[in-house]
Amino acid sequence: MRKIMVGVKRVVDYNVRVRVKPDNTGVVTEGVKMSINPFDEIALEEALRIKEKGLADEVLAVGIGPADAQQQLRTALAMGADRAILVQTDAQVPSLSVAKIFRQLVDKEQPFLVLLGKQAIDDDNGQTPQMLAALWDRPQAVSCSKIEISEGRATVTREVDAGLEVLEVDLPAVMSVDLRLNEPRYVKLPDIMKAKKKPLDTMTLGDFGVSEAPAFRTVRVDPPPQRSKGIMVKDVAELVDALKKKGLV
After folding, report:
1. What local confidence, expressed as pLDDT, does residue 18 receive?
2. When comparing pLDDT for 213 and 73, which is higher?
3. Is the link from the previous residue into 199 a cis peptide, with omega within 30 of 0?
4. Domain spans of the chain?
5. pLDDT for 27-61, tens place per residue?
6. Backbone region of residue 40 per phi and psi (left: phi > 0; alpha: psi in -120 to 50; beta: other values)
7. Which of 16, 64, 223, 245 is 20 to 30 Å from the Cα of 139, by its Cα?
8. Which fold has domain 3-219?
9. In angstroms, rounded to a whole number, what is the distance separating the alpha carbons of residues 198 and 81?
10. Is-contact 182 43, C-beta < 8 A?
């Protein structure tokens, strides 16, 4: 079976204004709207479009997170994914551990393509796709803005500083996607109802031999400093004088 595996991460919705906890140990997530990481949603949309072209038979969504992350996986199923797997844990799983989990799932599921977001908007690491490709010893293409699948190969377009870079990679491969690749579809109510009947399996970190002990510890989280109020100047001379006083010219 031609299968595409897609990573789906639960994050604070991008429309929510993030607030730091009073004790500075992290950000407030209680009572906050959570959603699929936007880059992962684009990866899922691309997988669904590849399937709709007849180039894949199944789309598998995989998430790692708390029990509540089932909600985001159900959204992925409502969008059109065929199955979902939740690796349930309340621990903060580092990028390398995520890559190791995906590597073992690759052995089990045998996808011809793994699609991931180029980064998550909560930690902005952007490391998992590259680590997975290295562990799997398969080609990778990151920050893709266009993907074309044909006869065991993929032609990928990436936006780089000098313009557009076109790569051709053999499949199976790992790809991470950028924002310009597509616009995810809206989920309709009938699809939400159908998603409740689709399989969603739950596993644990122990099933993959991954420890819940954190690889790093967050010492402190602080909000960005407040911007100082601007001032009005009468003319260019006053502007230059104000800049000189601040040591900017």
Report:
1. 87
2. 73
3. no
4. 3-219
5. 888 888 999 999 999 999 999 999 999 999 999 99
6. alpha
7. 64
8. Rossmann fold (3.40.50)
9. 9
10. no
